[in-house]
Amino acid sequence: MMILREIERALAAANDAAARRGWLMALDPRLRAAFDAEYAAACAAFAAGDDDAAVHHVGRAHILGSHFMATHVRAHWLMLRIGLRQRNPYEIWIQLLRTTGSFGTRLLAPFFGTTGNPGLAEFSAGARFPLGGDLAPLLALQDFTRWHFPSRKR
Fold this sequence. Notes:
The chain has helices spanning 2-21, 29-47, 51-65, 69-86, 89-101, 105-112, 135-140. By secondary structure, it is mostly helical. The radius of gyration is 15 Å and the shape is globular.
């Protein structure tokens, strides 16, 4: 379990370093705080054996973080762990595909936009759902269309 946490931390650190360099879009700090809170609640519920609460919170984290590689991968990774614990072969298969596919998130996100999709296997990848009343204002904080390319100093 400790190794998994270290992998998650390394992935988040790499994502943040790439965002600082301008290679990836950085999360708005308020959006990141909301993702972190939902993800922490999902992890706590998972650790307590409450899969229903874990699924609820990781679905919300997925919606908040699906435009960003590190947060998207982390959400699907936890969904995979939930599927493994539940011994659900369909969820495991779909989450394996989505976890590995999440590395291309920033390239695909402009085509899908914010879908409100909680990311579970029962929902197709492009399925659209209304955003929860508290999630829409958080997602509105982020300008998903503006890329900041690093300028070269001469």
